């Protein structure tokens, strides 16, 4: 064994700070990108963020403006605010009002009280009887069902507030809720001495109730969905992909401020200007690369998913990120970053780019193969048109898919898609009539 010196050449990719920044810019959403650029403008005194995009706005049509307005979430009254506004009408004593306010503050966004009353009583130095009385007051407020501790209690509270009380429905919810929900109706009908048609009537009544009474008073502000690209028909009838320049600030370099700093003749100042200009140039280059990557990616999606843009997402064809990456000549992770939190404005609405990717429902992914999204849409149509008294089983759905649409998938796959659509099994979809 001896020591020796050896010289060799090796090609190695180094993740520089600028390269990491380019990767981050690609995966930023439009909102995050704008925040990132303003943050960089605070670090670079020569960097300007310009919002003036007159030429783009001049070409915006009335239809485009309407679609933009559809993406803006409306402000909603919060559940807590709605409940507190009803307290003056109860004319409560100070202590009772504090307990009621405590209970209201403990409700979750669905309007349920998930915290045990024993814990709340200990926390606010109150007796359990006082908390029980306060909870009954909360449950008397609007919306009906608020303040319930579980689903059965929530439904019972709503049934008790109906103009015409239904004794059978209240009994089922109070004493037989689990077997009723699992549709063990034949056994339950014998226990209650009623027909299956009566249970079906109660089922329809309960289904008309609200299982989440607080859902219409969400405390979260709906997010603003901003499309990064716009897909529309051109003058020649073909599909055209355009980058949404309106949502991205324009970068500029403050020449006047540069000249004022450079006039001092300080070498450190000149070096500072060069460094900041290098950062500005790299940032502008990264933004242009992001723009071109999104345009190229969307062009491939439009070319491969033409039926989807013609007829909607129900005509979506199988397409994976790996296939698109190979066509673009980039790594699959680049496509994954590019579609993350990105949206496209299409004739059928604003759609997340990830939705255009779908695996094949069958093992053989040919050009005529159906995507999982398309198969799910067909399953929904078949179930919507079925006889409620004789619902289609998963095997029957698989047979119909093969006979009517030429899609050969197993019963197990149909079951998986049905569960993903949150559609109950045929046994739980079955409806009964009075005999």
Automatic annotation (TrEMBL):
Question: Any idea which GO molecular function terms this record carries?
Answer: DNA binding; DNA-binding transcription activator activity; nucleotidyltransferase activity; sigma factor activity
Which UniProt keywords are listed?
DNA-binding, DNA-directed RNA polymerase, Nucleotidyltransferase, Sigma factor, Transcription, Transcription regulation, Transferase
Record-level GO BP terms = DNA-templated transcription initiation
Q: Name one GO cellular component term.
A: DNA-directed RNA polymerase complex
Which positions fall inside the RNA polymerase sigma factor 54 core-binding domain? Answer: 69-257
The segment(s) forming the RNA polymerase sigma factor 54 DNA-binding domain are: 271-431
What this protein is called in its record is: RNA polymerase sigma-54 factor
List the source organism: Geobacillus subterraneus
């Amino acid at each position: 064994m001896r020591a020796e010196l050896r010289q060799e050449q090796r090609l190695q990719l180094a993740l520089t700070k600028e390269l990491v920044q380019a990767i981050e810019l690609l995966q930023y959403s439009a909102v995050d990108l704008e925040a990132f650029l303003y943050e960089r403008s605070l670090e670079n005194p020569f960097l300007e963020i310009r919002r003036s995009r007159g030429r783009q706005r001049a070409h915006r049509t009335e239809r485009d403006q309407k679609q933009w307005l559809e993406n803006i979430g409306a402000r909603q009254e919060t559940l807590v605010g709605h409940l507190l506004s009803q307290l003056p009408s109860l004319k409560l004593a100070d202590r009772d009002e504090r307990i009621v306010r405590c209970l209201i503050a403990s409700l979750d966004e669905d309007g349920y009280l998930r915290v045990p009353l024993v814990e709340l009583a200990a926390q606010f130095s109150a007796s359990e009887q006082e908390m029980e009385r306060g909870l009954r007051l909360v449950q008397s407020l609007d919306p009906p069902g608020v303040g319930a501790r579980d689903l059965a209690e929530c439904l019972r509270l709503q049934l008790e507030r109906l103009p015409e009380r239904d004794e059978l429905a209240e009994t089922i919810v109070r004493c037989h809720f689990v077997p009723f929900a699992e549709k063990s109706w034949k056994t339950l009908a014998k226990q209650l001495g009623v027909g299956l048609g009566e249970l079906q009537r109660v089922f329809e009544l309960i289904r008309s109730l609200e299982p989440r009474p607080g859902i219409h008073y969400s405390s979260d502000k709906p997010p603003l969905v901003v499309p990064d690209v716009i897909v529309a028909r051109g003058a020649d009838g073909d599909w055209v992909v355009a980058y949404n320049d309106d949502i991205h600030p324009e970068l500029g370099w403050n020449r006047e401020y540069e000249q004022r700093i450079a006039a001092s003749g300080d070498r450190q100042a000149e070096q500072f200007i060069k460094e900041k200009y290098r950062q500005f140039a790299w940032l502008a280059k990264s933004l242009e690369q992001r723009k071109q990557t999104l345009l190229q990616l969307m062009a491939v999606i439009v070319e491969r998913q033409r039926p989807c843009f013609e007829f909607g997402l129900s005509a979506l064809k199988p397409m994976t990120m790996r296939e698109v990456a190979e066509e673009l000549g980039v790594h699959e992770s680049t496509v994954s970053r590019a579609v993350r939190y990105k949206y496209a404005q299409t004739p059928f609405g604003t759609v997340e780019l990830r939705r255009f990717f779908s695996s094949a429902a069958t093992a053989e992914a040919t050009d005529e193969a159906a995507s999982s999204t398309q198969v799910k849409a067909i399953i929904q149509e078949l179930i919507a048109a079925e006889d409620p008294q004789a619902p289609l089983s998963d095997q029957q759905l698989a047979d119909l898919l093969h006979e009517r649409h030429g899609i050969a998938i197993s019963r197990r796959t149909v079951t998986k898609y049905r569960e993903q659509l949150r559609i109950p099994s045929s046994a739980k979809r079955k409806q009964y009539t009075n005999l």
